[in-house]
């Protein structure tokens, strides 16, 4: 069992930065691929970024490439999402997700574990 708790959301002006954190419980964190998703009001949940258990593979949705960076610290059981050059269209609730397989954490379906989310609001 893995429990995920996100933090770091808030209100930021366009062009600003935020760093989201996702703290995971359990001793087997390093076995899981991790992902970040987001859901804006009235829209479907969408993939943002994912990272393999070792950190050696990282995937991003096209609209955040070059602006967002996913990383993990297995010793601290934490995954991060550094978000730079934020845009109003990045406004959403951001969710952390964990699964044993990297491809699974690139879609919002079939994922083993989800956090409850943290709200990011980017003002224009």
Could you explain how this protein is built, in words?
The chain is globular. Strands 2, 4, 5, 6, 9, 10 and 11 form a 7-stranded mixed beta sheet that branches. It has a 4-stranded antiparallel beta sheet with strand order 1-3-8-7, with no helix packed on it. It has strands spanning 4-7, 10-13, 18-24, 33-39, 46-51, 58-60, 68-73, 78-83, 92-99, 113-114, 118-123. With 124 residues, the chain is mainly β.
Q: Could you give the distance between the termini?
A: 40 Å
Q: How many strands, which pairing sense, and closed or not: the largest β-sheet?
A: 7 strands, mixed
Backbone shape? globular
Mean pLDDT score, rounded?
A: 95
Going by helix content, strand content and strand pairing, the class is mainly beta
| Uncertain residue ranges | none
Strand proportion, as a percent range, falls in over 45%
Oligomer class: single chain
Summarize the amount of helix as a percent range: under 10%
Q: Helical stretch count?
A: 0
The helix/strand series, from N terminus to C terminus, equals EEEEEEEEEEE
Cα radius of gyration in angstroms: 13 Å
Number of strands: 11
């Amino acid at each position: 069992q893995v429990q995920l708790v996100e933090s770091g959301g808030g209100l930021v002006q366009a062009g600003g930065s935020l760093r989201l954190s996702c703290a995971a419980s359990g001793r087997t964190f390093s076995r899981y691929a991790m992902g970040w998703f987001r859901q804006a009001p009235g829209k479907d949940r969408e993939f943002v970024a994912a990272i393999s258990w070792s950190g050696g593979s990282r995937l991003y949705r096209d609209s955040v490439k070059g602006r967002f960076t996913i990383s993990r610290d297995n010793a601290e059981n934490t995954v991060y999402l550094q978000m730079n050059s934020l845009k109003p269209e990045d406004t959403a609730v951001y969710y952390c997700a964990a699964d044993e397989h990297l491809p699974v954490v690139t879609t919002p379906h079939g994922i083993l574990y989800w956090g409850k989310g943290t709200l990011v609001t980017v003002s224009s």
